[in-house]
Amino acid sequence: MTALLEVRQASKTYTSGGLFGRHVVRAVAGVDFSLTSERPEVFTIIGESGSGKSTLARMILNSVQPSSGSILFRGRDLATIRSRRDRLAFMGEVQPVFQNPFEAFNPLKRLDRYLYLAARRFCGARTRADVEGLADAALRKVGLSLAEVRGRFPHEMSGGQLQRVAIARALVPEPALVVADEPVSMIDASLRMTIVNMFRTLRDTFGVSIVYITHDLATAYYISDRLIIMEKGEVVESGPARAVLDAPSHPYSIKLLQAVLPVGNAWRDEMPAEPRPQPAA
Ligand SMILES: Nc1ncnc2c1ncn2[C@@H]1O[C@H](COP(=O)(O)OP(=O)(O)OP(=O)(O)O)[C@@H](O)[C@H]1O
Question: Which CATH superfamily is domain 5-269 in?
Answer without folding.
Answer: P-loop containing nucleotide triphosphate hydrolases (3.40.50.300)
